[in-house]
Design goal:
Number of strands: 12
Strand order of the largest sheet: 3-2-1-10-12-11
Number of helices: 18
Order of helices and strands: EHEHEEEHHEHEEEEEHHEHHHHHHHHHHH
Largest sheet: 6 strands, mixed
CATH superfamily of the largest domain: Metallo-dependent phosphatases
Helix content: 25-40%
Number of domains: 3
Structural class: alpha/beta
Oligomer: single chain
Radius of gyration: 27 Å
Distance between the termini: 13 Å
CATH class of the largest domain: Alpha Beta
CATH topology of the largest domain: Purple Acid Phosphatase, chain A, domain 2
Length: 563
């Protein structure tokens, strides 16, 4: 399916082909029931695959691709395809650009029919914003094309995109007011026979709402900026349905249109029929909300100062949730008896989905190429910066072991001691997106670099100094340094540097600390922080939380896409 991708392609030659030219004319369709399947995305931000550290990683271009090949369909992207380049990303920019090249090839080959422009697409300069992008209000950007009418399953679907004219980068490119451009595009597409018109708005949710209120007559508007994990259900704003996809390819938007007979007059709307995809997501949410609300009601009712009116209101709310659960279980598709309707929902891109083998191979080749490039750059850059006079540098776990044998013995059996190996298994040990949380003192004064990690094992893995700080002064003083030059109490913020929600979805400070301290009443067992462990008391461990999440996901970490 994906044979023929070019192996080497510069950003300047990234030509995103707008492959959604109208197909054969569908005729009037006046007496036919027609169906159009539309996939929608935004803010991919150059991500070709997710961080594999979460219990159920979301988003992978190789898993999205097979879904998008199903025909007849239309694939639309509101922009932000590349990556956000700031000064913080200077060292990472070369590998991000290589990833962007892979995305460009995949988007052309799939193909993605309509692609907008977002600030992330300016990361490689204006020359990287390839011809064929569809934008109504960037007349100064070479090669952009206006929206057009697409024939999808016999339905004429008009699609156009606008960008935020208040954005500094877009303003520099001569962006004109989005509202005026959207109104002109809507009028033109209706005149060209569009039965349904979709606006791809690379705007925030609030600005997209303002747009559809100012431009009545749109059927759908896709929010293109600041979407994070997206919106669970379409939202009706005036007479326009608002759709919110997820960023970084974590979830794929599905819109299915069912036009019964001739299209209703402009201004009337199709009915939201929910559908199996969204019903499944809502039932999953209800499975958590209903027991929690039920328990809360019981606790509130038992309180001496319980407010009967408040309790009654909450019981009514619980009844509504239970009724909704029953309705979705019995009839996930709620199509009307007559008239046109649609379903819309977000499909999580999880590990269990099929993969496109060609993209898998390209990702592996890219990983190797990025590793070679990063290693060469790191070796050329030289050693890490020296610490300021009087400040400590990193010494490695072997220095700690001479005085803290039991603690180090305990650490050797911990997941932190296997952090480097988890990268080697998937070939990511030279990837700057991954390495900093799998080694000690990365890019820190007196610490390590990608080159030192590759060449020597001294600071590989998450060692003692990741939590306690660089230890050279402590070692030089034989542990008698006063005041202490190391930290004995690791704050939660330090842990969250490598355990943010997007990389460590089950992280809970106290639970994880129970594992890190690993106390035991067995005096013969290796100990680490026994007194602190006793103060934490009983409760879940990080291992328990992680295991439960993996069991729910039904897959193991690092599962590769099948050939």
């Amino acid at each position: 399916m994906f044979k023929g991708f070019a192996l080497v392609l510069g950003l300047g030659a990234m030509v995103f082909a707008c492959a959604g030219c109208p197909g054969k004319k569908a005729g009037t369709g006046a007496g036919k029931n027609r169906t159009a399947k539309i996939y929608y995305l935004t803010e991919l931000k150059g991500q070709i695959e997710p961080c594999g550290c979460t219990s159920d990683p979301l988003g992978d271009l190789a898993r999205i691709a097979p879904i998008l090949t199903q025909r007849p369909r239309l694939v639309i992207d509101a922009g932000g395809v590349l990556f956000e380049h700031t000064e913080l990303y200077d060292k990472d920019a070369p590998q991000q650009r290589l990833k962007a090249e892979l995305v460009a090839r995949a988007y052309r080959e799939l193909p993605v029919d309509v692609i907008g422009v977002g600030p992330e697409d300016l990361s490689g300069g204006v020359e990287a914003v390839a011809p064929g992008r569809s934008v109504e209000n960037l007349p100064g950007l070479p090669g952009v094309v206006p929206g057009r009418v697409h024939d999808v399953g016999g339905i004429k679907v008009g699609v156009f995109t606008v960008v935020d004219d208040a954005d500094a980068g877009m303003a520099k490119l001569g962006a004109t007011p989005a509202h005026a451009a959207a109104q002109a595009a809507l009028t033109r597409l209706r005149a060209e026979g569009a039965e349904v018109v979709i606006a791809l708005a690379h705007l925030t949710r609030a600005k997209t709402k303002a747009l559809v209120r100012a431009v009545p007559g749109l059927d759908f508007a896709v929010v293109g900026q600041g979407v994070e994990l997206g919106g669970a259900a379409p939202e009706l704003v005036e007479a326009t349905w608002l759709l919110v996809p997820a960023e970084k390819g974590q979830k794929l938007g599905h819109l299915e249109l069912h036009l019964v007979g001739p299209r209703p007059v402009t201004g009337s709307r199709v009915v939201d029929a929910v559908g199996p995809l969204r019903a499944a997501a809502e039932l999953e949410s209800l499975a958590e909300r209903i027991p929690k609300l039920s328990a809360d009601i019981a606790a509130w009712a038992a309180a001496p100062d319980a407010d009967p009116a408040f309790i009654a209101g909450k019981r009514a709310e619980l009844g509504e949730l239970e009724a909704l659960k029953t309705k979705l279980e019995s009839a996930p598709l709620q199509a009307p008896a007559q008239g046109s309707w649609f379903t819309a929902g977000l499909q999580p891109i999880k590990k269990g989905l099929d993969c496109a083998p060609d993209i898998v191979e390209q990702k592996r080749a890219l990983t190797a190429k990025i590793g070679e490039m990063n290693l060469g750059a790191a070796r050329a850059a030289g050693p890490p910066p020296a610490p300021a006079p009087g400040k400590a540098h990193f010494v490695g776990v072997e220095e700690c072991e001479s005085c803290h044998k039991a603690a180090v013995e305990f650490w050797k059996n911990s997941v932190h001691a296997r952090a480097w190996a988890t990268l080697e298994v998937v070939g990511k040990q030279l990837d700057r997106d991954c390495i900093s949380c799998h080694v000690t003192g990365f890019d820190a004064p007196g610490g390590s670099t990608l080159a030192t990690q590759a060449d020597t094992p001294v600071l590989r893995n998450v060692q003692c100094e990741m939590c306690h700080g660089p230890g050279s002064l402590h070692v030089d003083a034989d542990g008698q340094d006063r005041p202490r030059t190391i930290s004995l109490d690791t704050p939660e913020a330090t842990c969250k540097g490598c355990h943010p929600k997007e990389h460590s979805d089950t992280f809970e400070y106290t639970a994880y600390l129970r594992d890190v301290l690993g106390g035991s009443d067995d005096v013969k067992a290796p100990r680490h922080g026994y007194e602190r462990w006793k103060k934490l008391g009983s409760g879940p461990t990080g291992h328990a939380l992680r295991s439960a999440a993996l069991a729910k996901a039904g897959a193991s970490i690092g599962k590769a896409c099948p050939k």
